[in-house]
Amino acid sequence: MSANLLLGKPVQGALLEEVTAATRAITDAGHRPPHLTAVLVGGDPASAIYVRTKTTKCREVGFGSEGIILPEETTTEELLAIVRRLNGDDKVDGILVQLPLPKHCDTKTVLDAVDPAKDVDCFHPHNTGLLVQGRPRFAPATPAGIIELLERSDIEISGKHAVIIGRSDIVGKPMAMLLLHRHATVTICHSRTPDLAAVCRGADILVAAVGVPGLVTRDFVGPGAVVIDVGINRVADRAQAAEILGDAADWARFEERGYLVVGDVRPDVAEVAAAVTPVPGGVGPLTIGMLLVNTLAAARGRRDIGNAG
Ligand code: NDP
What backbone torsions phi and psi does residue 99 show, to the nearest 5 degrees? Predict the structure, then answer.
């Protein structure tokens, strides 16, 4: 038996089409399109790629977008001044501060300064509170994208046992809330969970959001489970990549880049599971799709654009 592959691109494509149509309706009604501003501090190449991809996708759906690139030595105060300026700029509907910030920046203070109405990443405590109460203004993009993937793949959530490995504010905790509100029974695991594999084997839906390449082996997965792999890990050690990926390793890509992107879940889990998300190509594209959905929601929430869109 080999599991169904749950691919993120087709779902991202559907989300982008829906957002494009809504944006056209907004502009046809004479309103400005939604506008996202992304702030990047420092020269981390992966972060720069993420920001470029996000602003490019914005333009594809008809949004206004802008990337503000700041030097590595930008202070918390300087960053706060920029966030406050964007809060007060009526043209800007969504503000995204790309993480991680350099170590000297106070990430919590910066994220708390973002106007909750423009907080399209859903990191502000106000928005987290609304999410916990089951009346979200926005949902964090990665877990919300996973819900889209499950629902659009006709995977039942209600009544199922969902096990999440990871309890971060960005993925694990909001994932738990979104599944709970859809009537799953939810277990959250973390680095101090004893006998992790046994807990995970009881899952109908297993979400791995850990950041440890290949942590989830066949031993973690019960027959027929749906396995969602959030992990994005760069593995530059050939022996480690071979041990985790086996025949699935793309050695041509390894030679070209000097590393492979590996999930938290081993590919051979597909021999036991009913459905799995690949890495890359699974959860990643959904995160961007949901960011656009949130930016559209922010524009609708902030502005009097009637029923347009
Ligand atoms: P964090 O580092 O914030 O959280 C990791 C969580 O995993 C923590 O709760 C930690 O437990 C737990 N953990 C670590 N090691 C183990 C272990 N051996 N056994 C059980 N639990 C463990 O990571 P994020 O949530 O931000 O990200 C997780 C992964 O998802 C990363 O690879 C990241 O790159 C990726 N990611 C992918 C996205 C996408 O778009 N596809 C978006 C966001 C993240 P404890 O709390 O006890 O320390």
Answer: -100, 155
pTM (2 d.p.): 0.96
Q: Residues with beta carbon inside 6 Å of ligand 1?
A: 142, 165-168, 170-172, 189-193, 196, 209-212, 215, 230-233, 283-284, 287
What is the CATH number for 282?
3.40.50.720
In a mutational test of the pocket of ligand 1, which residue from 101, 122, 230, 287 has the highest number of ligand atoms less than 8 Å from its CB? 230
Count of structural domains within the chain: 2
Phi, psi of 164 (to 5 degrees): -115, 130
Give me the sign of the Cα torsion angle 230, 54, 58, 297. Answer: positive
Does 307 map to a domain?
no
Mark whether 54 and 158 lie in a shared domain: no
Confirm whether 247 is a catalytic residue.
no
Domain assignment present for residue 57? The answer is yes
Which tens digits make up the pLDDT trace of 235-275?
Answer: 999 999 999 999 999 999 999 999 999 999 999 999 999 99
